Recover the amino acids of this structure.
């Protein structure tokens, strides 16, 4: 079991309840998409799954370990085995592409190797290989601020591929990308996951992409799991219920007001 | 349109507060000017103007005496060496302190994980140490070290190292905390150690500002080294002290020209380094 949440509840410091009794088991190598309206708790759930947020209640097990019972060094090496693709690539613009990719393995390297690689990039071949998989091999020695937003996100994915994690988490990884790039990025992550036998959990804005790339869909709404089904069983009615405007709902998806559409909301819409 | 004509919904809720703070600042600052005996009018009093005119006239022309220029060169090099050595030591003190004090490099804050209170205690202790280091002005340290180590630049170097160590540490950690913490946080989140996170996540964003602040501090250290010369720490300050006591204005103005040249030099270095790091 790659990821196991049992009755996880999260109350943020400001008193807002983000997750409420969420239980989720994801087997090694499985691919799961989290969908749901914004503010549903998808990001919080992914942070819990990345050992980045300690739940207020409930138990977490990641790659067969309870992160919050580990000693600091063990927690560090657990985190080094978890890859995270952010919605906005967290890469300093003045870093060179090669350095940005090599940063993926900093959790696995000692401080000496990290510092050497900071001054003179060490494993250039490895970085180039990861970039080539994202179609960016020729940008190896460019600076990140010379890339477009979509290219920078592909560099961030190359960093995760170079990290070679056993559990890949992605928080809205393609919501800032055009439809073609979004599809490419998801395909690369899915290829990596099936090639390396790595578990892949992503939150997605676009339901059609979720249904296309993920065999299992988890619908999250207001901090609880509304449904957890194979993609084939996710019907328009379930989606309509998931995205339906609630009482006083102010930040629901705009497409939720049109529940008659077959798949909503579309990535290309 | 007058403010009273605005409907309550359109009125900026902050405007009143800002006006209030502005008035409060004036009320506090005005008596302080009085306390500082700041009376600009006395500057233009004819009698005082006359005194200043003769004082300044004594400075011209700048001295170009061969022997004196030799002393001036030695003293300049001594001051530069004092400032640079002091800054180097201060840097060695400041880097580990700033590294410990920077909140955005805290691993235990993520989660938060076990051992978070220990991190807080260390950070607080380091911050107090930084305050202690810079609380006493470098001239006072210099006076003390001149008594301990005897006359000469060594006392100035130590004095600079202590105060500037505290100052650099404080501002370094503040610059690091003011830079976008998301890249650093993402790295820590992926199991990266603190030193590697500093290099790959924070420094690429903050390098330019850190360097320009460091060069500016070096410039301040040169000035401070001059002042410390007056209390016996050697260099340009000591030379100027002697020239002033011997009432040789020409030498004083030559020394002042060297100050000007040093500041111009610091500025050029700063510009060049910023260009390299841009």
């Amino acid at each position: 079991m790659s990821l196991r949440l049992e009755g996880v509840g999260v109350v943020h410091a400001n008193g807002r309840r983000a997750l409420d009794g969420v239980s989720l088991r994801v087997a090694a190598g499985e691919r799961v998409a989290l969908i749901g309206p914004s503010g549903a708790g998808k990001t919080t759930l992914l942070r819990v799954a990345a050992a980045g947020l300690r739940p207020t209640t409930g138990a977490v097990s990641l790659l067969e370990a309870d992160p919050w019972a580990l000693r600091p060094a063990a927690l560090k090496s657990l985190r080094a085995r978890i890859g995270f693709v952010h919605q906005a690539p967290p890469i300093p613009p003045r870093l060179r592409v090669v350095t940005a990719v090599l940063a993926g393995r900093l959790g696995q390297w000692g401080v000496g190797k990290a510092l050497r690689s900071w001054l003179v990039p060490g494993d250039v071949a490895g970085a180039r290989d990861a970039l080539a998989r994202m179609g960016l091999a020729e940008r190896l020695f460019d600076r990140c601020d010379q890339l477009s937003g979509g290219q920078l996100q592909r560099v961030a994915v190359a960093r995760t591929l170079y990290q070679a994690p056993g559990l890949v988490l992605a928080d809205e990884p393609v919501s800032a990308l055009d439809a073609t790039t979004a599809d490419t990025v998801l395909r690369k992550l899915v290829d990596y996951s099936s090639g390396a036998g790595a578990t892949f959990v992503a939150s997605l804005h676009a339901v059609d992409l979720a249904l296309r790339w993920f065999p299992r869909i988890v619908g999250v709404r207001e901090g609880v799991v509304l449904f957890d089904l194979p993609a084939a069983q996710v019907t328009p009615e379930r989606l309509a219920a998931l995205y339906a405007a609630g009482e006083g709902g102010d930040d629901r998806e705009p497409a939720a007001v049109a529940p008659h559409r077959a798949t909503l909301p579309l990535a290309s819409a | 349109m007058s403010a009273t004509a605005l409907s309550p919904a359109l009125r900026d809720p902050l405007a009143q507060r800002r006006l209030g703070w502005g008035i409060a600042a004036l009320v506090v600052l005005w008596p302080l000017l009085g306390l500082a005996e700041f009376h600009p009018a006395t500057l233009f009093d004819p009698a005082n103007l006359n005194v200043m005119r003769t004082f300044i006239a004594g400075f011209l022309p700048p001295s170009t005496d061969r022997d004196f220029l030799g002393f001036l060169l030695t003293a300049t090099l001594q001051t530069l060496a004092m400032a640079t050595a002091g800054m180097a030591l201060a840097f060695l003190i400041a880097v580990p302190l700033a590294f410990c004090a920077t909140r955005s490099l805290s691993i235990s804050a993520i989660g938060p994980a076990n051992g978070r209170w220990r991190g807080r205690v260390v950070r607080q202790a380091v911050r107090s140490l930084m305050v202690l280091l810079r609380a006493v002005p470098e001239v006072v340290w210099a006076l003390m070290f001149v008594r301990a180590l005897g006359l000469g630049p060594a006392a100035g170097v130590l004095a600079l190292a202590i105060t500037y160590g505290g100052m650099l540490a404080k501002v370094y950690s503040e610059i690091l905390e003011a830079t976008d913490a998301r890249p650093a946080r993402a790295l820590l989140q992926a199991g990266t150690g603190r030193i590697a996170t500093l290099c790959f996540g924070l420094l690429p964003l903050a390098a330019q500002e850190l360097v320009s602040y460091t060069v500016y501090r070096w410039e301040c250290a040169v000035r401070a080294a001059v002042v410390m010369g007056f209390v016996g720490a050697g260099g340009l300050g000591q030379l100027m002290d002697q020239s002033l006591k011997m009432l040789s204005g020409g030498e004083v103005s030559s020394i002042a020209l060297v100050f000007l040249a040093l500041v111009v030099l610091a500025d050029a270095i700063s510009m060049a380094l910023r260009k390299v790091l841009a």
In short: The two ends of chain A are 36 Å apart (CA to CA).
